[in-house]
Amino acid sequence: MPAPLDISQGTILVAAPHSDDEIIGCGGLIAKTARTGRVFVVIATDSARLPGMIPLPAGEADNFRKERAGESLAALRVLGVPESNVFFLDMPCGELADAGYELEKLLEGVIAKTAPDRILTPFRRDSHPDHCALNAACRSLRNRGIGPSDILEYFVYYRRRLLRMKDIRRYVRDEFRVQVDMGSDAALKRKALDCFKTQTTLRHPFQTRPVLTAELLDEYAAGPEIFMRCPEDAGMSRIFPSAATWIRIADSVEPALKRVKDCFNMRLKKKCC
């Protein structure tokens, strides 16, 4: 397993699909890097959807977008990142997969302003389409010679219920896996996560629990944070030598189960409203 020390040096650009992903996946590394180098964060979407990706009524979306952005700014301040280092692209939440060229052009502009040594982007096979689309955009830019060649993938939705070990990060080939232990930064990351009140409290009548429960926050804060750094041409069997087939199955089945859950939530929302 590669040593983690090098990835907290220099300048990093954290590419996050939604407000809170940057802290969940990279909060500890952000704190470490902010003490010795520079951290920039770009949040791709307006984050203006309800749990289960339910669209907000038009009159509420703008206020919710501002609230989510404010939470990210507050959380990043806790970790030592100034507001001037944060960029919001405000693309429609849930629609990054259709953004293509526009997303890449906006990211290219941020890269030109920040000149990062490495980019952190969500895992390429994350269970959320916005996360996968942002990963694809970052890798596409690298393949065209735009930005740094060093891209690390971080994990937000790393749980896979159909896998024996439940955590997809545990199947990543050792040579591609970089681990950052939280140590004293665990409490700092936990404090940053607490800034996301829209996600940690019951805000909507159809909710039975927060999006981010106290148990989840404790798990995210304690770490460790895992990053994947692998060649562009590395396929599933090379990245996950012991479980490629099972991961393909989980990636096919679990999103379908989530769609059923989201549909149920939508019906419940309409009933409550």
Outline the fold blueprint.
Elements: E1 11-16, H1 21-36, E2 38-45, E3 49-50, E4 54-55, H2 58-78, E5 86-91, H3 101-114, E6 118-122, H4 129-143, E7 151-154, E8 177-180, H5 185-193, H6 197-200, H7 214-222, E9 225-228, H8 236-239, H9 244-272
Parallel strand pairs: 1-2, 1-6, 2-5, 6-7
Antiparallel strand pairs: 3-4, 7-9, 8-9
Helix pairs in contact: 1-5, 2-5, 3-4, 5-7
Description:
With 273 residues, the protein is α/β, with parallel strands linked by helices. It has a single domain (5-272), classed as LmbE-like (Rossmann fold), CATH 3.40.50.10320. Helix content is 44%, strand content 15%. It has helices at 21-36, 58-78, 101-114, 129-143, 185-193, 197-200, 214-222, 236-239, 244-272, and strands at residues 11-16, 38-45, 49-50, 54-55, 86-91, 118-122, 151-154, 177-180, 225-228. The strands form 2 sheets. A 7-stranded mixed sheet has the order 5-2-1-6-7-9-8, with helices on both faces. A two-stranded antiparallel ribbon has the order 3-4. Helix 1 links the parallel strand 1 and strand 2 (38-45). The longest helix is centred in the C-terminal third of the chain and has 29 residues, at 244-272. The mean pLDDT is 90.
